[in-house]
Amino acid sequence: MNVDRALRIIAGAFVVLSVLLGMYVHPYFLWFTVFVGANLFQSGFSNWCPMMTFLRKAGVRG
User: Fold this and answer.
1) Is there a domain that residue 62 lies in?
2) Domain coverage including residue 32
3) Is there a domain that residue 60 lies in?
4) In a domain, 17, yes or no
């Protein structure tokens, strides 16, 4: 698995998890969804995301 594919899987999981937590635990968890979305938005322009650094250090292929 490459970094881009792993990044999309993790971002999707974070969005689903934060929406479920926002629905069933507390609405403030939806701010995490906003954070993930904003991060994906900026990575579309800069081609860099903080999670990519973690994935590369964890040994995910580039």
Assistant:
1) no
2) 3-55
3) no
4) yes
pLDDT in tens, 21-37: 999 999 999 999 999 99
pTM of the predicted structure, to 2 decimals = 0.86
Are the CB atoms for 11 and 32 separated by under 8 Å?
no
Residue 60 is predicted with a pLDDT of: 94
pLDDT of 62 higher than 90: no
Q: Which residues pair with 2 in a beta bridge?
A: 61
Which two structure tokens, joined as six digits, stand for 13? 């999981």
Q: What is the 3-state secondary structure (H, E, C) of the chain?
A: CEHHHHHHHHHHHHHHHHHHHHHHCCHHHHHHHHHHHHHHHHHHHHCCCHHHHHHHHCCCEC
Structure tokens at 27: 């609405």
| Residue labelled with tokens 């939806």 | 30
